[in-house]
Amino acid sequence: MERLLFVASEAYPLIKTGGLADVAGSLPEVLRQQGMDVRLLLPAYQQVLETIAPPTLVAELDVHGTPLRILGTTLPGTALQTWLLDHPLFTGRPGNPYLDTHGQPWPDNAERFLLLCRLAAAIAVGEAGLDWIPDILHCNDWHTGPAIALTHLHHPRPRTVFTVHSLAHMGLFDRATFERLQLPEDFWHEDAMEFYNQVSFIKGGLVYADCITTVSPNYAREICESPGGMGLEGLLRQRRKHLTGILNGIDSAVWNPAMDPHLAKRYSARSLGDKVRNKRALQARLGLAEGNERPLLGLVGRLVAQKGLELILPVLDEILALPVQLAVLGTGESHYEQLLQARAAANPDTMAVVLAYDENLAHGIEAGADIFLMPSLFEPCGLNQLYSLRYGTLPLVRAVGGLADTVVDSNPQTLADGTATGFVFEQPDAAELLAALRRATALWYDQKQWRQVQRNAMRQDFSWQHSANLYHQLYISPLKT
Ligand code: ADP
User: Fold this and answer.
1) Phi, psi (deg, nearest 5) at residue 415
2) Of residues 267, 344, 270, the one with CA closest to residue 303
3) How far, CA to CA in Å, does 33 sit from each of 8, 21, 41, 110, 179?
4) Alpha helix (H) residue ranges in 391-463
């Protein structure tokens, strides 16, 4: 039985700020169910310790001069053995794993996540004093990049896999921090972890890993070019042979309209007539005018430029002048929050904004909306459009990253051949977004066609089984030289 150590900075449902947590909370468990011997390694954030039953003590050890403990628990709702790095750098911090209460990165994030990396590498090469040594070390995003670099200093070592969920965060720190971290001096080199006179944690994974993956095939292509590569395209092109795109799955137990406990009325592709009950419940909850005379647009996500706010805001008046309603749930940059809130206050019947992180309402919007807006500027995979497909809430997306891989535009041909699942526009241009929205709205009034596209969308299979098989292949197939 192959042993897998899966390392991440967040995992649903213990701690979540974005899609990474959804992946770390699903993929390792599916791999376990498929027969691997898996350990998930996470920091023991204060919030995590507050939500779990008392953990066991797995080990007490000293890593690069730092005493720490590994606590054992299982990921709630699963049988996945989860190890928590117990140290005051994590246990002593309330709230967000990366940011302080002012929304600023914790000043010692480099030290914090390097400690996670040093522990992961120690476990990986058998220096943690455990009787469990992995065959595969799988790390995720910048927080865990140096774990791969450090593991590669040893022989023998496990196979290493590094997944890029987003290149936008590279874990960049200055030279003084690099010196404080006491990483090997060799790492300060452009062929290693140096990036324009800073140390880049993500490069630890990108340069050294045996296999690199990204969370969609299209994003794997985009990051080998500018601007998607954000300055790392040269390195990624060099490593092209070792780079694969594997689409994220979704947790199909949590995101299933037929079983979802958050919904006013559960429904399936066979009982789509019941979906409207969720629309009415959502309208009532948000104070929108109630009725089913016009489509309801939903948007859930971080309110940041990446998610396409710069495309929505310039045409928001035109959008609200269409026969639509708009429900927004998210938190993010305060100027976006304020602009959206002001428009909602001026249009209470047609637009509602909830500035919060609210799982229950996110499910309510996925079920209650007719169209899901996701006009991202870039999107490594995107989960919300996958949830939307499953809920028969047709996604309207820009043709970028994983969105282009997962949504098929509705046009005469795709409508005729039964492949249409949503609405896609090409350029990051507000007028294109508006045109796509007009097409979507027009199709909504043709309820017979709409139902057909909803059924096409709901038939898509984005469960983890398929993607987990692809990861498993990567773990065991011969390495490319
Ligand atoms: P990203 O990882 O870039 O934030 P994804 O679409 O991949 O975007 O994943 C976002 C995840 O976070 C989804 O599960 C989404 O439902 C959830 N989410 C984002 N914002 C909120 C919010 N305000 N309330 C509830 N869930 C949210």
Assistant:
1) -65, -40
2) 344
3) 19, 19, 18, 34, 42
4) 401-406, 412-417, 430-444, 447-459
pLDDT of residue 252: 85
- Is 429 in contact with 311 (CB distance < 8 Å)? yes
Q: Which domains does the chain have, with CATH numbers?
A: 3-249+465-476 (3.40.50.2000), 269-460 (3.40.50.2000)
Can you read off the two tokens belonging to residue 139? 């790390």
Instruction: Please state the atom number of ligand 1 nearest to the C-alpha of residue 307.
Output: 3
Average pLDDT over residues 143-161: 98
- Asked if residue 86 has pLDDT above 80, the reply is yes
pLDDT tens-digit map of 343-375: 999 999 999 999 999 999 999 999 999 999 999
* pTM of the complete model: 0.91
In 3-state terms, what secondary structure has residue 238? Answer: helix
- Find the 171 Cα to ligand 1 centroid distance in Å: 21
- Interatomic CA distance for residues 450 and 455, integer angstroms: 9
- Say whether pLDDT at 481 is over 80: no
Distance 183 CA to ligand 1 centre (A): 34
Distance of alpha carbon 239 from alpha carbon 141, whole angstroms: 17
The answer, yes or no, to whether the previous bond of 156 is cis (omega within 30 of 0) is yes
Q: Are 371 and 396 in contact (CB under 8 A)?
A: yes
pLDDT averaged over the chain?
97
Name the residue among 315, 330, 390, 332 with its Cα closest to residue 361: 330
Q: What 8-state DSSP symbol labels residue 52? A: S
Structure tokens, 105: 């990165």
Q: In angstroms, what is the span from residue 433 Cα to ligand 1's centroid?
A: 21
- DSSP letter at 272? G
pLDDT band, residue 253 (cuts 50/70/90): confident
Q: Which atom of ligand 1 is nearest to the CA of 12?
A: 14
Cα–Cα distance between 192 and 175 in angstroms, integer?
14
16 has a pLDDT exceeding 80: yes
